[in-house]
Design a protein that fits this description.
Layout lengths: L6 H22 L5 H6 L10 H22 L11 H17 L4 H10 L3 H25 L2
Helix pairs in contact: 5-6
Amino acid sequence: MVTEFTPYSALIGGLLIGLAAAALMMLTGRIAGVSGIAARLLPPADRTGFSSRLAFIVGLIAAPIAWFAATGSPATQTVPGNLLVMMVAGLLVGFGSVYGGGCTSGHGVCGLARLSPRSVVAVVVFMGSAAVTVYLLRHVIGA
């Protein structure tokens, strides 16, 4: 599968992610780690800051809806539609987030910005794993 690189939308998206992460850190002192924010919504959850965590997750879900409202076209999905593959991938990502003590947003966006050595290791591991996975899917398995 070939995807088109769109530098302007990637730049705007990256700026918005950085702005949101910086705003969350400045306003709440918390890191924008999506897996941690989502996990703290589930029981037994600390009720302190529950509404702000919920608003953060609702904002993530609302983004493609807002995109559709603004453009009239749905957000493009660039992942396979195979439900079993998506379920296994979701479980692996969830396991990796728990095992690695964070996710791509927490380590990749916020951790690297804070020059965290632990985040550098985490990013190298998950980006390396992603590169190997893409190579295997495109050149070995043929998906």
